[in-house]
Amino acid sequence: MFGRERLPVKTADQLHSMRAAGLVVGRCLQMVREHAVAGTTTGRLDDLAHAFICDAGAKPSFLGYQGFPATLCISVNDEVVHGIPGERVLEDGDLVSVDCGAIVDGWHGDAAITLPVGDYATAGDRALTRTTRDALWAGIAAFRPGRGVYELGQVIEERVAAGAAAWQADGLSVDFGIVDGYTGHGIGQEMHMEPTVFNERVRASGPVIREGATVAIEPMVTLGGHETHELEDGWTVRTDDGARAAHWEHTVAATPGGLWVLTAVDGGEADLAAAGATYAPLR
C-alpha cells in the first residue's frame, strides 16, 4: 500500500457535482436524526432515507454495493459500522451510528453521524461521541495541500488521546480505542477510491494533498478496545469487548482558498473555524 496509492484531483465542475451529492447526504442525515426516536425500527429509518434520496433525484450509494441490502448502514451500541437496518427497535439510551451515501450525476457523497436515542445518554457516551466528532474535525482541518494524506492519521490519533485526557481531568474515567483495520478513503465517481485515510499514526506520509483532492475522513472510536469482529450477516462489525462505538464522517475537498466540507449542509463553516481551518467553497 505505502508508496503506491494516488490522490486524484477534481475540476471545479466536478466538485460542484460532488457538493450536490453531499448536500443530499447531509440533509438526509438531518432528517434521520429527527426520526431516530425510541420505538422506531432501524428499517423504518432506512425506508425514510431511501425515499428522501430518491425524491432528491439522487441514488443511494450503499444499496446493492457489493451486495449490501440497504440504503443506510445503522450500527447500534457495540456495533461499529455496516449494520444492516431491519426489525430492531430503538430504545432510550441506545447509541446509534448512521452512515449514508448518495450519487448525483455519477458523483458520490458519504457521511456518518452518531447520536443518542432519547433524553438519556451516559457520560461515557457523551464523551465518546464528542471526542470522535472532534477527531473528525481535527482530521478535516489537517487536510491541506502539501501535506501527506497519511499524516492525517497522526492528527486524529492525537486528538482522540487529548480527548481522553481532558475527560479524565474532568473526573470521568474513560479510555478510547481507535478501531483497527477500518479507515477513510478517497471518493469521487466511485465511493471507495485511493488513497487510504488512516485514523492512527503510520510510518509513511502518503500521497501529497493537492488542490481539487477529495477524501472521506471517518474516525471510528470505542469506549474500550480496538479489536472487532464481523457478524454472520457478513457486514455488521461489532467490538470484541462489547464496548460502545462512535462513527463520524464527512467528505471534504481541498479548494484553492481552503476547505469545503461537501457533506456538511453549511459547508462546514463554523466547525472549520473552530478547528482553525479556512472555509472556502467554490462559487
Can you summarize this structure?
The chain has five helices and 15 strands. With 283 residues, the protein is an alpha+beta fold.
Q: Would you give an account of this structure?
A:
- There is one protein chain.
- The chain has 283 residues and is α+β, with helices and mostly antiparallel strands.
- 29% of the residues lie in helices and 23% in strands.
- The strands form 4 sheets. The chain has a 5-stranded antiparallel sheet with strand order 8-7-9-14-15. Strands 1, 2, 4 and 5 form a 4-stranded antiparallel sheet that branches.
- Helix 1 packs antiparallel against helix 2 (42-55) and helix 3 (123-141) runs antiparallel to helix 4 (152-169).
- It is globular.
- The model has no long low-confidence stretch (mean pLDDT 96).
